[in-house]
């Protein structure tokens, strides 16, 4: 076994983050303030929207966005079966029902055809997830939403820097939501953001996230709300991370190409290539491959001190959604992705030598191509 561990992910952090965090301490202002406002303004500009509101994580961003759209008891929201559980949880927490649909077999993104089949009178919104940093087919999503009169809320929690036909994801639908968890393209440790062009939506999110205050006084609460606020300390890290964004995106895209080049021709292995519209704006959240024995490959990589893990577990199989009583037969592409998918190391800090070491091990396991 190699003595040097290759982790699944390492965030890019350094002196810039230290300096801005130190400034918060010296200013004696740790909760939301000037740095949060600056971070929100820069994110709104970057994502091409009028408004951006920071909150404490991506799940909360989705929850707030859904509430602001009026989603609640008796409603349905269409969600892909192949995604992190928070996508569906945010729907369920509003009292609405997540309606799970299968994904496209080439991109692993939500299937527009399946979405159209599940529209009912109770459908309040559609939630395309830009899975693993590849844009969903937003043209089809917007077309369906307009035709059926339902809102589009983008789960762009894995989509920072990703574009759809040149437009940043998260800024295309009625609401977009980002996550800044430690393994995301940029991080604030924990953190999330709501994006929109609607003044009424951002106002609703702001009131809900700030204990129901509407600006009539610190102890006047016109509505019931929550404390979902982002701090200036989180925003300080975010501002430093934005200085690195172009470099991080470039590294992720370069690594994706390097992986693909080194793994080309490997037997018993497939990769996801491109996105729903053949756009070049992919920013891989993970580098995923699909093999016959994912658990075996993960164990084989671990023997050489290389971290890897399975891809997302199908939502319809999750114990917390057992009550939906859904059948495997309705989700063949999600099941195939889970049964074969492995996420390889994907940090921007990976070296060429580390990628080559990972690929050498993958090729040896798959017994394909030159070793």
Automatic annotation (TrEMBL):
SUPFAM superfamilies reported for this sequence: PLP-dependent transferases
GO-annotated biological processes: polysaccharide biosynthetic process
Record-level Gene Ontology MF annotations: pyridoxal phosphate binding; transaminase activity
Record's protein name: DegT/DnrJ/EryC1/StrS family aminotransferase
Record InterPro entries: DegT/StrS_aminotransferase (IPR000653), PyrdxlP-dep_Trfase (IPR015424), PyrdxlP-dep_Trfase_major (IPR015421), PyrdxlP-dep_Trfase_small (IPR015422)
CDD domains membership: AHBA_syn (cd00616)
């Amino acid at each position: 076994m190699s003595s040097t561990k290759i982790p699944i992910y390492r965030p890019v952090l350094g002196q810039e983050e230290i300096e801005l965090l130190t400034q918060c301490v010296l200013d004696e202002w740790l909760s939301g303030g000037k740095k949060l406002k600056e971070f929100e303004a820069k994110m709104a500009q970057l994502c091409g929207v009028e408004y951006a509101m920071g909150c404490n994580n991506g799940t909360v961003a989705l929850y707030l966005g859904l509430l602001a759209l009026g989603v609640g008891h008796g409603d349905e929201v269409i969600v892909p079966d192949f995604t992190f559980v928070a996508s569906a949880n945010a729907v369920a927490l509003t009292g609405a029902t997540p309606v799970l649909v299968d994904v496209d077999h080439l991109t692993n993104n939500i299937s527009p055809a399946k979405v159209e089949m599940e529209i009912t009178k109770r459908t309040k919104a559609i939630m395309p997830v830009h899975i693993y940093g590849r844009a969903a087919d937003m043209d089809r999503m917007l077309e369906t939403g307009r035709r059926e009169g339902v809102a589009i809320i983008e789960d762009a929690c894995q989509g920072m820097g990703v574009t759809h036909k040149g437009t940043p994801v998260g800024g295309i639908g009625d609401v977009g939501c980002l996550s800044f968890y430690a393994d995301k393209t940029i991080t604030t440790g924990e953190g999330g953001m709501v994006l929109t062009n609607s003044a009424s939506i951002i106002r609703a999110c702001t009131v809900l996230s700030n204990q129901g205050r509407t600006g009539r006084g610190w102890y006047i609460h016109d509505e019931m709300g929550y404390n979902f606020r982002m701090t200036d300390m989180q925003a300080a890290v975010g501002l430093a991370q934005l200085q690195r964004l172009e470099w991080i995106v470039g590294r992720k895209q370069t690594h994706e190409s390097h992986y693909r080049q080194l793994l080309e021709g490997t037997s018993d292995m497939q990769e996801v290539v491109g996105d729903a519209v053949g756009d070049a704006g992919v920013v891989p959240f993970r580098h995923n491959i699909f093999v016959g024995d994912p658990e075996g490959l993960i164990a084989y990589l671990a023997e050489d001190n290389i971290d890897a893990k399975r891809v997302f577990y199908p939502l319809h199989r999750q114990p917390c959604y057992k009550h939906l009583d859904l059948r495997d037969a309705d989700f063949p592409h999600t099941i195939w992705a889970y049964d074969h998918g492995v996420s390889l190391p994907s940090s921007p800090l990976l070296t060429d030598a580390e990628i080559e070491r990972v690929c050498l091990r993958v090729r040896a396991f798959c017994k394909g191509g030159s070793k």
